[in-house]
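Note to self: keep these together.
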Amino acid sequence: MRLAVLLSFLLLCALAPSSQATPLHEGWQPVDGLQIFYREGGNPDDPTVVFLHGNPLSSLMYVDVMETLARTGHVHVIAMDYPSFGYSDAPDHQRYAYTFDHLAQTVDGFLKARHITRYSLYMQDYGVPVGFRLMTMHPDSIAAVMVQNGVIHLDGFPSAQDPQGELRQHWEHRNAAVDSRRAAYVRSLPYPSAADRDDEDHAGPDALMQMTAAAQRPGIIDARNDLWFDYGNNVKRYPAWQSLLKRLNVPVLVLWGNKDQFFTTPGAFAYKRDAPQAEIHILDSTHFATLDAPDTVAGLVNEFLAAHRDALK
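Structure:
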């Protein structure tokens, strides 16, 4: 009898919700014939924060921060993987045009399918040009803007500052040698192992594994090269996005890992020109601060959202 009671007690403990259980759930949302993977948590009746990931990662980069916010921030959080990134479908570039306009259309379709019409944006890297397109399409939907290591000013983009440099010239006249070099780099990426622990951005082995596996799928480097070539159209829109941010006049938070050699800290302070109300924090972290310092990021986001609770409704 005692054994039966003990077994029943252990079974109930195993089935009972753990206070440490993840508050996120995952799924796939059909959007225009594609299955878009997403992570979501919190109460949908609370203010929503949409997380837009950077290159070459996915919504995985936000898991720790989203979990903390869902537990403690009284917010609804959601992040999706763009086509060919993470766990979302990866259509061939002949079937799906890999441009930032198209990515933004897909993300917009995803948000409509999830019935999300009012939200704050947290954007990093590629997420910034995707997010500013959403802001352009639906300015009245935006409650607040949060940026982490992503630019709308050349101040923080040293490799793109010279109009005659290789990068800007590639965006004007596509250079096959640049495409080939990028493809060779992706093919050379090893899976994380004890013998190969190069992780200067402190992304961690799980993120590196997913990044590598996703990028090395057949044909995906062609898609990524198309998207990188299209990045030049983002630079052309910087002045318009700067004006948009000024007109919106919403709460703005800028977080920046100071060890990022690609998007540098002057890009953080440049947001003050368009949003004098912006709160700026330079972190002792990397390009992927949400992976390297998730507790710091979550704490700052929580404080920011709490301070602007009325504006988020």
